[in-house]
Amino acid sequence: KTFFSLFENENLEDGEVIFSVVMEKGEHLLTFDFSFTGIVRSICDRCLQPLEIPIAGEERLFVKFSDTETTDDENIIVVPENEYQIDLAHIMYEYVATALPMQHIHPDDENGLSTCDSEMLSLLEKMQQKENDENDIDPRWEKLKELKIK
């Protein structure tokens, strides 16, 4: 939770993710291989109840040492040659954030039924029905639509 609080993202505030990082050092290039797995705690988009989302991934990052080069490649970072430290926290946070699915919803059970909060699902159904009822067209207007000017 302390790590996630360093970054402002209301959908990503807590979790337990284990990273394995292997660094290969060259003369003007560092290669980092990241492997991670864990869970992220969030709120369900459908029922607003707490939700644990399993995540996993593998990424590769290159760090070039140069005082003149720049790059637009998201997998390459260019740092000045006199740098002796690289903070990977933001990179690791981005890897976790991009591993999350677009929708954060409770998965269905083995029978294909939602595991979301049943009370909230019931309320959502009532609101949807009410909205559908309000969108129904008055039958008198339907009859007027059938009339055509000749």
Please provide a written account of the structure:
The chain has a 4-stranded mixed sheet with strand order 1-2-3-4. The chain is built from 4 helices and 4 strands, in the order αββββααα. The longest helix is centred in the C-terminal third of the chain and has 18 residues, at 118-135. β2 and β3 (50-65) form a beta hairpin. The model has no long low-confidence stretch (mean pLDDT 85). The radius of gyration is 25 Å and the shape is elongated. 27% of the residues lie in helices and 31% in strands. It has helices at 2-5, 89-99, 118-135, 139-146; strands at residues 14-25, 29-43, 50-65, 76-79. It is an alpha+beta fold and 150 residues long.
- The Cα radius of gyration reads 25 Å
Strand count, sense and barrel status of the largest sheet are: 4 strands, mixed
Percentage of residues assigned to helices: 25-40%
Termini Cα gap: 71 Å
Number of strands: 4
Proportion of strand residues: 25-35%
Unreliable stretches, pLDDT < 50, 5 or more residues?
none
> What's the total helix number?
4
Order of helices and strands: HEEEEHHH
- Global morphology: elongated
Structural class: alpha+beta
Spatial strand arrangement across the major sheet: 1-2-3-4
Q: What do the pLDDT scores average to?
A: 85
